[in-house]
Amino acid sequence: MGNWVIWLDVNIPEIFQRVVYLKKETSSMVKVYHNNIEYNVTISNIREIIRPNFIYGDIVMAKNKVIGEIVDIIYHFKNNEPAFYILSNGRKLKTRYFSNELKLIKNTTNNLYDGT
């Protein structure tokens, strides 16, 4: 089973300050998943968090009635909570949403994030 973490290593800018799913492989190497993309990396600067309310691939409706798929999760340090970006009509929206602004329409069917 894996853990949800904030990736704080600037050496991998694609996932810097992103909420990622970490699966431990060995004492020093891990697999990290960000929106179904796998990175094989050494453990470095991470911060463990609880599982976000929504995960990559979930279909959600935003407070403004926009429906889309969770494609990016960042960590908002000031609010101390994840913020979500969605893909709607083929494009990633610029608006970030917090959990209280989203409603789950359909869970992801990707078992990558459930430890199986």
Description:
By secondary structure, the protein is mostly beta strands. The protein has no helices and ten strands. The chain has strands at residues 3-7, 19-24, 29-34, 37-42, 46-49, 59-62, 67-76, 81-88, 91-92, 102-106. It has a five-stranded antiparallel beta sheet with strand order 4-3-2-1-5, with no helix packed on it. A five-stranded antiparallel beta sheet has the order 9-8-7-6-10, with no helix packed on it. A hairpin with a 4-residue loop joins strand 2 and strand 3 (29-34). It is globular, with a radius of gyration of 14 Å. The model has no long low-confidence stretch (mean pLDDT 88).
As residue ranges, the low-confidence spans are: none
Largest sheet: 5 strands, antiparallel
* Backbone CA Rg: 14 Å
Counting DSSP E segments of at least 2 residues, the number of strands comes to: 10
**Secondary-structure element series:** EEEEEEEEEE
Helix content: under 10%
What fraction strand?
over 45%
Q: Number of helical segments?
A: 0
> Strands across the major sheet, in which order?
4-3-2-1-5
Distance between the termini: 7 Å
Mean pLDDT: 88
Shape: globular
The SS-based structural class is mainly beta
How are the elements arranged and paired?
Layout: E1 3-7, E2 19-24, E3 29-34, E4 37-42, E5 46-49, E6 59-62, E7 67-76, E8 81-88, E9 91-92, E10 102-106
Antiparallel strand pairs: 1-2, 1-5, 2-3, 3-4, 6-7, 6-10, 7-8, 8-9
